[in-house]
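Journal club side-thread
Mid-discussion, someone asked how the predicted structure for our own chain would compare to the paper's figures. Pasting it here so we can look after the session.
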Amino acid sequence: VSHHAVLSQQKTTKCRPVCNSSLPNNKTTLNKMLAKGPSSLTNLLHVLLRFRSRPFVIIADLAKAYNTIKTGEKEMHLRRLLWWLPGDDFQSKPRTFGYIVLAFGDTPSACFLEYSKQEIARYMRVNLKEENLAHDFIAMSYVDDIAIAINTMKEAKIYSDKLPQGLEAYGFKIKPPIKIGEDKGSVPDRPSDADTMNLFGHSYCQATDEITLKFNVNVNVKKKVASF
């Protein structure tokens, strides 16, 4: 499979290798050879409706969601990367590395992430005694985006404290949750770029509390096929 490097200014991950598991090779692809698993994603339309159903909302996202999930020794040899580290002699053999975590873009990754979220919800329910949070965490999240709607700011405080606890118990980390309520104060005429974030694959403006849905429409002329 082909691969390339994604460079970043972040201190923790300055270079991230990305593999293309859908690259055709000998009339097949790696993704076609991997089991997809059952459909486990929450219905996006339902998530969006719940997101707008209550006056307050907590927004967060899972950091490096797929790379947080560890895989076993067999999966490590599914693909290997040849790599020269800084200071290595390029005339020598490169070092061989294997994946020990899920890779974004692999067919089963989405299913494994959802099962991991189910385990986190179970921990919230059993260990943290937060039945409502466990339910809302699954019902109001889509892939690595979380937008839990609540009725009061008191609930928002409880959820924003308990949510990181449940996630960190399984090694997941999130940025500090953003609490957004119905009392937004004065709305600027031109919201800044800092007010806009990517949520559920769409653009959401915190200042105006508006979400812009992006979709594509292909318009083709219908051709009549002659029948004999």
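Post-session note: Helices lie at 30-33, 44-51, 65-68, 73-76, 109-126, 131-139, 153-168.
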